[in-house]
Amino acid sequence: MMSAKQKISNIASAAKERITICTAKAEEQAEKATAATAEEREIAKERRKAKEARAKMELHEAKARHAAEKLDARKHRYGTVAAATHHQPGHDTFGHHQYQDPAVMGMAAPATAAAPAVARPAGGAPMATQYPSTVPAGTTQYTTGTGHHYV
């Protein structure tokens, strides 16, 4: 749906186009009246056609410009988060912020304390992790491909 401003701008551009076309036709008539040969009359006709085509092109450019102005004004007026962040990294398609790993985003990772060394037995594989809240007292948890087991 067109806004009132866009519609009035389009009407003004169409009126300007019609004035340009009428002017081109009048100039063609004046050139034909002073032309001595058929070739000169043909040149006058071609000039008129070129001026009409230029006027129509300018009309279409103006209409596109008016539509772009309307869209730009709507963006500035409503300024929704979804419109502003739709395809930006760190936002989903609804404009909600999503966590992004700083390394993926190309930013430096925040300075943190060094991670504790993982205790490894003589075989080199990491030791089984113990979870005090879920592991019965006096047992050790290990994981296989089928689930958790307690020993």
UniProtKB/TrEMBL annotation:
Origin species: Linum tenue
Region (Disordered): 31-67
InterPro entries attached to this UniProt entry: LEA_1 (IPR005513)
Sequence similarity: Belongs to the LEA type 1 family.
Membrane-spanning ranges: none
Protein's GO biological process: embryo development ending in seed dormancy
One Pfam match: LEA_1
Protein name: Seed maturation protein
Composition-biased stretches (Basic and acidic residues): 52-67
